[in-house]
Amino acid sequence: MSAHENDSGAPHGTRRDYVTGFLLSVVLTAIPFGLVMSGVIADVRVTAAIIAGLAMVQIVVHMVYFLHMNARSEHGWTLMALIFTVVIVVIVLAGSLWVMFNMNHYMMPQMAPPAAHGAPPMDMGGM
Amino acid sequence: MAHSNPTAAAPMTEGATPIYWETEPHHHESGSSTMLGFWLYIMSDCLIFAMLFASWGVYGRSFAGGPTSHELFDLKLVAVNTALLLFSSITYGFAMIAAHEQRKSAALRWLLVTLLFGLGFLGIELFEFSELIHEGAGPGRSAFLSSFFALVGTHGLHVFSGSIWLVTLMVQVARKGLIPANVRRLECLSLFWHFLDVVWIGVFTFVYLLGSMAS
Fold first, then answer.
1. Whole-angstrom Cα distance, residue B206 to residue A55?
2. Residue contact A14–B51, C-beta within 8 A
3. Helix, strand and coil percent figures for chain A, each rounded to 5
4. CA of A22, closest CA in chain B: separation in Å?
């Protein structure tokens, strides 16, 4: 990453950065689409884990090659803001899923009022 | 005494003009903090999407006896849309490179290509939404569809605003050239545009791909 500072103080990428990032993204997009559309892996949970992992890798690739994230820009403040945001995002996502999953779990099956939302009780188990 | 301390008030004598000393070094160029400020905006936008993803995670399987995500999603359409957004990212990158090299017409050409990819993305998304609503799978059908339309629709609205911004900047660059202020604006839109691509990675993975897998 060559991140020379320009007059507005923001680092910007070279043509090679963009092409590298683009090629990596194409590969990282094609693999999950291929996996799901062809259904090569029989186990749904394995496929889900692989494509979730590839998405994380692709997000990092975009951050580095397209958004030019590094520890030096703006004296590290962009990175600090990003880390703070990631912490909040993880709390929001993990917390919501955990709480709602538990609620569904304890609601099932006897306490769920039948047809409360126009659905038979057995349909309400999923997250 | 007063002269040894630069923060002390200037001595005022009758009829003299008051003197104010600068106690802080003050040499911020105009716009020098714009990029950090815009980055903070992007981060707060990130939190909006985090909440929409959380609601999708909670309601994504609550079909209420209606159509399921496996039946509704057309992955071929999503693949085309993903490709369009990915291409628009690299063409915007080329526009930025041209802008930094002060090649105005090349920058404008790449911005136009980016705009066309963005509009193509929006067209396909609107087509998908109208198909869903005609099939009776509108946002009011189930919690699954409400959270789907909220998340994907918010992303689409962002792409739409980005496209308007892109047109505005193309006019600005065409009229005023690649002056520092315009390059700075292009850099802000660059962050915005690439950020939308990052959000789309989450959308196609966790909404479309995971949603279309039969479980």
1. 9
2. no
3. 65, 0, 30
4. 6
CATH superfamily for B40-212 is: Cytochrome c oxidase, subunit III, four-helix bundle (1.20.120.80)
Per-residue pLDDT in tens (0 to 9) along chain A, 127 residues: 444 444 444 567 788 889 999 999 999 999 999 999 988 888 889 999 999 999 999 999 999 999 988 888 888 899 999 999 999 999 999 999 999 989 888 886 655 554 444 444 444 444 4
Both A33 and A52 in a single domain?
yes
Of A55, A70, A85, the residue that ends a domain is A70
Q: What angle do CA A21, B98, A20 make, to 5 degrees?
A: 10
DSSP for A39-50, please give it.
T-SS-HHHHHHH
Closest-CA distance, A67 to chain B, in angstroms, reads: 6
* Structural domain boundaries in chain B: 40-212
Chain A contact for B61, CB < 8 A? yes
- Asked if B43 and A123 come within 8 Å (Cβ–Cβ), the reply is no
Can the peptide bond before residue B11 be classed as cis, meaning omega within 30 degrees of 0? no
Interface residue of A4, A35, A77, A85 to substitute, partner B, most B CBs within 10 Å: A85
Q: Which two tokens stand for residue B144?
A: 């699954």
pTM of the model: 0.82
Domain limits at A22?
Answer: 1-70
Cβ contacts of A58 on chain B, cutoff 8 Å: 201
Count contacts between A and B (CB, < 8 Å).
149
ipTM higher than threshold 0.95? no
Would you call B86 an interface residue with chain A, using a CB distance cutoff of 8 Å?
yes
B30, B38, B41, B43: best to mutate for the A interface, most A CBs within 10 A? B43
